[in-house]
Amino acid sequence: MDTLNRISNHIHQLHTGEQWTLSVQDLLISRTDFQCISVFLSRESDKGHFSLLEEGQTNSYIGHTSLTIIKH
User: Fold this and answer.
1) Which residues of 51-60 are buried (b: 16+ CB within 10 A; e: fewer)?
2) Sheet (strand 50-53) strand order
3) Which one, out of 22, 48, 62, 66, has a CA that is 20 to 30 A from the CA of 31?
């Protein structure tokens, strides 16, 4: 839960249009945990405050080890 709070706070502090790339290595967590966070962020992005980008993928965040968050 602490990891989700840190990520949420970081996203909140981003300026409009600013990007932040988040990876398994940055968080020092397992790929499984990262996938859970990716799913959570995907659902949160539906609220419209930020978007997620995946290199080589546009709709699936499962199986990736990094994602880019773009603040709206």
Assistant:
1) ebebeeeeee
2) 19-23, 66-71, 50-53
3) 48
Mean pLDDT of the chain: 87
Distance CA 14, CA 44 (A): 15
- In whole angstroms, give the CA distance from residue 36 to residue 25: 15
Note the pTM of the prediction, 2 decimals: 0.81
Which residue stretches of the chain are H helix? 2-13, 24-27, 31-45
Distance in angstroms (rounded) separating the CA atoms of residues 55 and 38: 14
The length of the chain is: 72
Instruction: Name the one residue in this structure whose structure tokens are 């990094």.
Output: 66
